[in-house]
Amino acid sequence: ITEKDGALRKDPRTGQLARRVMLFPKARAKMANAWDVMGLKGTGSDNYVLDDLFIPDAYSFTIDSPADRREHGPLYQFMTLSLYGYAFAGAAVGVARAMLDGFVRLASEKVPYRFSTKLRENATVQGQIGLADARLRAARLFLMTPLDEIWAAVVATGTPPTLEQRLTLRLATTHVIREAKDVVATIYEYAGSSAIFEKGPFERRFRDIHAMTQHMQARFTNYETVGMALLGLEADE
What we know:
two-stranded antiparallel sheet; two-stranded antiparallel ribbon; 4 strands; single chain; mainly alpha; globular
């Protein structure tokens, strides 16, 4: 976005380059198939190109701008990037749970090479699966409990989440995604060679969860931001 003198416009709230959402007829977009990735293939997050298209101001707005907000329900009091985080975390829990369920089915049937009993009879496997289940249940609670509490607070006050609440949700979403990734990694290891076949319930979920952890919602620096706030320092959202 440029001013009349050609200078790049900056967001007065953040000091970063201003960005706006533009609504336009989808027929004007030329798709550029760039989503050739190892995981999350189903999201189809491709690029598109627009050539010489004028968009009236009425069809443009700034993300998370109170001035541009037309709907004032509780959902719209949450920041867009935060909503992405909750969605990723929920998907991560689902991927890990499906991975764990798939392993339970496998373990009841598979007799590993040079073993005399089924996989589920192995004490190490039993302990690791019990631990994985505990980690996944705890992660889900860590996601849902503060989200329920903060949603109730926003409904009651009609105001956006506070800084402390936003940081709590950032911590929860980041930690949940990373815990789900560790659960998936454990199951992938104990499934052995059964995990590498495309027809099975493991390899795609292994790729999907690792693609999720590469997004900003799961990066380790989110822990640093929360840690700064806990230590009494000014945290940069």
